[in-house]
Amino acid sequence: MKRWAVLGACLMLAACGGGPRYHGYGPPPPSPSEYGPSQPYQPPSPPPSQPSRPATPPPVKSAGPLKTAMIGSYMDNQESELRRAMRGTGILVGRPGDDIVLRVGSDAMFEGNSYNLSERAKDILWKLAPVLRRFDHTQILIGAYTDTTGTAQKNEEVSRKRAYTIGGQLVKDGVPLARLQAHGYGEEDLKIKTGDQVNEPRNRRIEIRIVARATG
Question: Is 0.90 topped by the overall pTM?
Answer without folding.
Answer: no
